[in-house]
Fold each of these.
Amino acid sequence: MNDFTNYIRDIPNFPIQGITFKDITPLLGDGTAFNAAIEVFAEKYESESIDTIIGIDARGFIVAAALALRLGVGFVPIRKSGKLPFECYEVTYDLEYGRDTLAIHKDAFPEGSRVLICDDVLATGGTLAASIELVQKLGGNIIGIALLIELKELEGRKKIENQPIFSLVEF
Ligand code: AMP
């Protein structure tokens, strides 16, 4: 399978007026499509000696956890502020719709770890930029950034120059 666009649904004006939400539930709900998407990432990163896969709250967890199992490595969550129970580093950032703070446990992975960051959608890039900052606070070595969807028009990559971003589908 190489066309995943049929499994991504546009929801106009969600969660607020003016945003076209990219709904990935059709992709996740189809075993063949979901497996094929994870397999594309697995083939790309299996020879990269990844130590840890990081998922961004909340849909990034789905991709990251599936890929971590497939590659036989650990999973680390980056979560919204106030959700993680241990000591955290935090970064506040602007979203396509609103403002938020992300957090990571201070002991999430050892300094110098080879990490792969996963999320569902790259939109304006604020979420990913904040996540990169958190990973860098811990001294992580970012080997890859794997996304299901990149919304090119929003130019999120401009906020995250010189990072190895790979997106499965571009719109
Ligand atoms: P941004 O910080 O603007 O790149 O937004 C990225 C985060 O917000 C991702 O974690 C997505 O889950 C979510 N998001 C932003 N825009 C959309 C969209 N149009 N459709 C689906 N999710 C989105």
Amino acid sequence: MTKKTLPVSFPKRFLWGVSTSAHQVEGNTHNQWTVWELENAKSLAKQAEYKLTYLPAWDEIKDQATDPANYISGRADEHYDLYERDFDVVKAMGLNSFRFSIEWSRIEPQEGSWDAAEVQHYREYLQALKKRDIEPVITLMHWTLPTWFAKKGGFEKRANVKYFVRFAEKIFEELGSELRLVVTLNEPEVYVAEGWIEGAWPPAKQSKLMAVRVYMNLAYAHRQIYRLAHRTNRRLKIGLSKNIAQHTRGDDAASTKIMVWLQQYVADYFFLGRVRRQLDWLGINYYFSNTYRGFKRVEGGPVPQSDVGWDMQPSDIQFVLERLWRKYQKPLIVTENGVADQHDKYRKWWIAQTISALYKAMQNGVKLDGYIHWSLLDNFEWAFGHWPRFGLLEVDYQTMKRRPRESAKWFAKLVKELRS
Ligand code: BGC
């Protein structure tokens, strides 16, 4: 794929970037996830022996997946100390944007007490991006919470939302002049489903009632932060990152149509409907599609699977973007999209398919302002631990050395061409 093979060029101001989150890359964080990891590492390693054997790469990842150390975020990528070097790579790749989350537990380690040195750290972090002409996209909540907030019941209680809003206020006051694009929440639906329905992530509960309550409180938090930002700093453009799967029909049965409609409503529109008037833009995180026949999801289609067992249908992102644009008419940014692919067998194909699909969506009228790939680095993949490899750069977790994968070199070349 080259500029010549694409029918027209991307807009000059289009954001080409990479995405990360604090807990997954920084190292040495202390939040409700770190506590949970320490409590659950052994049982996760045990469970892997029967829960993960279905994975295409099981034989290769088995040793890591059955080792409790895999489930501890620990040093992660040491990006907290190595960020300048990582930004040099982002710059050298010709990218012009970078998404990351600000770790609330660093800024407010105890209730009401702000850590000035940590605020300063993120100030310098933002300046390091600015110096390189890289536009920051910040996330306020990428699933991790200070332990004091989690102990109070976190987002289960509406009365607790004010603490999160106060954190946002602090960030806007201290760092607002360096910011424009803000993601309030990362994938609220995944956070709720894993934490309160599957019970697979902290706080590992199973209560549909509580899940709905948390979901509503998150929507409320988003609306509050939107209003706060609009009152205090007109520069800020408030969005959120929503995981969107494409739901496709495996046949024409009436029950299949109902199921697809239901999935879209429950997974996407239920939440977005509650914040649609408080969105300057909408972030889309796309990783996979789900196909239904009747009320059943069709497992394992003819398409290849990534290392974490997700069906790979990258070009479906076109339909996701078109659907969300039609429904909400908000500028869209792809805030995450990528593939767990340790041998870098599919990543280049994935990105090429994706970029053509973005292009088609734009030709069909979608206002798309950027593509931010997940991820810059291999990183700590939540309850899967360290073995999934989503990075454009491979990380050696012993030495912390980064090595660009072939797909990264190719992507960098393409972006430079598309931006020229
Ligand atoms: C999350 C990331 C995660 C990625 C790959 C997204 O759901 O926002 O934190 O690493 O998917 O699983």
